[in-house]
Design goal:
Oligomer: heterodimer
Strand content of chain A: over 45%
Number of helices of chain A: 3
Order of helices and strands of chain A: HEEEEEEHEEEEEEEEEEEEEEEHE
Distance between the termini of chain A: 64 Å
Shape of chain B: elongated
Distance between the termini of chain B: 57 Å
Largest sheet of chain A: 13 strands, mixed
Helix content of chain A: 10-25%
């Protein structure tokens, strides 16, 4: 009888230790993935799949004394491109004859570097090291990010074994189907990216410039005074930022950003001006779902790259609270 | 021999006269031997096989699609050059040069709004034009949010959408879930809300964290107007086999 228990014990231990090794190794790969672009100069071509369409883009990425600089442009159709440097994102859209300058918002580089972040992520996702694979002719490690519930999407990442660069990344819906995909077809690490390759091909002189930096209508609402609260959100989500947006011609919009570490959801609240402005129900664009509802004569719109049920849950829990 | 010909038909490799002949056979419901109605089923089977090989198979296969298409055809006149509903909206935007004041189209949206709003909506137009949208819990609409200022009225849309479907059925290979979705009732947002939603989407995209640093930017420049669309909105992912998933779940316990 005792012998039976021993056997059981022997069976369980290897499985458990293998699992934690897999998860640890997965985080190691993710750290490498975030570190790689901060030290490497590279150029490559990738495809972007969304909504049943495939796009092809070219990227040049360079690291200098001024930090990272990156130029991304479309290889098909009109030469839409984006140049990212330090805190600035310049977006050139030739078919609209417009150039946009924006603040560079996301710096996710520390996401997997801090233990508390990792612990928080683990409450919502499983991180699993998958089978080795090959992308763009290079060996890659794969990391599966599996949500623990149906309130968020999964991901699969292919990380270059040699350099740590992200070679491919897929966003997976509840049925494990790819709803968005980026995949390099060719990538090379180089000593230096010549400066001219990081400059946009158009001067933009004849274009209309839209500069969000010059617009002081958007301000952080750091003191957090608001009457709007999200009462109920899926486990792991928390409110990260709160903004008040005001453009002279438009009503003020409150903007609350929620995040579970990987997925983000925006809640927009705006006073209803006219009867026909109401939007109640769902909508989507590729991986991004939208849910609209009306609370206290305000239009509440929730937008996020999460399943429909999540935006709906969050939207229906938005409440107006007096005297906060 | 007939099988080869049929295969060539599926692959769109027949001459015009052969193609026409095959179409008339398919539509009349007679088999090559003229004795039964197996041709429609065969057409359906070939497409399922071809989709399976190319991994384009949807979650559910509609085996009665051919019959439904036929009954639609019987009730509708054939229109050889239907109006393209989405085209005017897209073109308006592309022809949107600042000096282009003679455009017969309604005022482009980005002239109607100011400042930040302009930036945001232009950006989203880049992403949204001609994307398929769904409103009110699952009712499909081809109304692209950003293009709506020049969209025809609901009635016009309903009128045009049926002939579009018929054209699609004549080109057998184009019959997909998405074209059948065109024939569903159309649902659009309240017109005032289009711009607002565009701004929200563009704005949110800046916060779309993501493991992939390049993804939000690929989203912004990702849209090109004339890129061919694949049959289905989702790719099946061979990499994520069930064995791999169940294995990982077991390991996690």
């Amino acid at each position: 009888m005792k012998a039976d228990y021993k056997f059981l014990f022997l069976l369980i231990v290897p499985v458990v230790s293998w699992a934690s090794d897999s998860s640890l190794e997965a985080f190691e790969q993710l750290k490498r993935m975030y570190a790689a672009p901060q030290t490497l100069n590279y150029q490559g071509t990738f495809v972007y799949y969304h909504d049943g369409k495939i796009e092809t883009m070219k990227i040049f990425h360079s690291v200098g004394i001024e930090g990272e600089k990156e130029r991304l442009y479309h290889l098909n159709g009109s030469a839409r491109e984006i140049v990212r440097e330090q805190n600035l994102v310049t977006c050139i859209l030739p078919d609209n004859k417009s150039v946009m300058v924006n603040k560079n918002q996301g710096n996710q580089n520390i996401l997997f570097a801090l233990p508390e972040n990792i612990e928080a992520l683990k409450s919502s996702y499983r991180f699993i090291l998958g089978k080795d694979d090959r992308i763009a002719g290079r060996l890659s490690k794969t990391v599966l990010v599996r949500p623990k519930d149906n309130y968020r999407y999964g991901r699969k990442l292919w990380i270059d074994t040699d350099t740590g660069l992200l070679l491919s990344s897929a966003l997976l819906n509840e049925n494990n189907r790819t709803i968005e995909l980026i995949m390099f077809t060719e990538i090379s690490v180089v000593d230096k990216i010549p400066a001219f390759l990081l400059k946009p091909t158009v001067s933009g002189k004849e274009f209309t410039w839209h500069n969000e930096l010059a617009n002081d209508g958007v301000k952080d609402n750091d003191n957090g005074v608001t009457n709007w609260v999200v009462k109920n959100m899926p486990n792991g989500f928390h409110s990260t930022k709160h903004y008040l947006r005001h453009v002279s011609t438009e009503p003020t919009v409150e903007h609350i950003v929620l995040s579970d570490g990987l997925a983000s959801v925006s809640v927009y609240v705006e006073r209803l001006a006219t009867q026909n402005k109401k939007f109640i129900g769902t909508s989507y664009m590729g991986a991004v779902n939208v849910y609209g509802t009306v609370v206290n004569d305000h239009q509440v719109t929730v937008v996020g790259e999460v399943p429909k049920s999540t935006v709906k849950l969050i939207a229906s829990s938005v409440q107006y609270v007096e005297n906060r | 021999m007939e099988d080869e010909k049929f295969s060539a038909f599926i692959d769109d490799e027949l001459s015009q006269s052969e193609f026409d002949e095959m179409c008339s056979r398919l539509f009349s419901g007679k088999d090559f031997s003229g004795k039964d109605k197996g041709l429609k089923q065969k057409w359906q089977r070939y497409h399922v096989i071809s989709d399976t090989l190319q991994k384009h198979l949807p979650e559910k296969v509609d085996y009665n699609l051919a019959d439904r298409v036929m009954s639609e055809l019987e009730n509708e006149p054939v229109i050889l050059a239907p109006n393209r509903v989405l085209a005017p909206a897209q073109n308006t935007f592309q022809n949107n040069a600042p000096n282009n004041n003679v455009s017969p189209m309604p005022t482009p949206i980005f002239k109607q709004i100011a400042g930040l709003a302009v930036a945001a909506s232009v950006m989203v137009v880049a992403i949204l034009v001609s994307q398929s949208f769904t409103t009110q819990d699952g009712v499909n609409t081809t109304a692209p949010i950003a293009a709506l200022p020049t969209m025809p009225s609901k009635q016009e849309f309903a009128r045009v959408s049926k002939p579009q479907t018929i054209l699609a059925t004549q080109q057998a290979a184009l019959v997909t879930q998405q074209t059948t979705a065109l024939a569903k009732p159309q649902m659009v947002f309240p017109p005032d809300f289009q711009n607002q939603l565009n701004k929200y989407l563009a704005n949110h995209n800046q916060y779309a964290s993501g493991v992939s640093g390049v993804l939000p930017y690929a989203r912004i420049i990702g849209y090109t107007p004339d890129r061919p669309q694949l049959g289905y909105a989702e790719l099946s992912h061979s990499e994520l086999s069930h064995s791999e998933l169940s294995h990982s779940q077991k390991a996690d316990k």
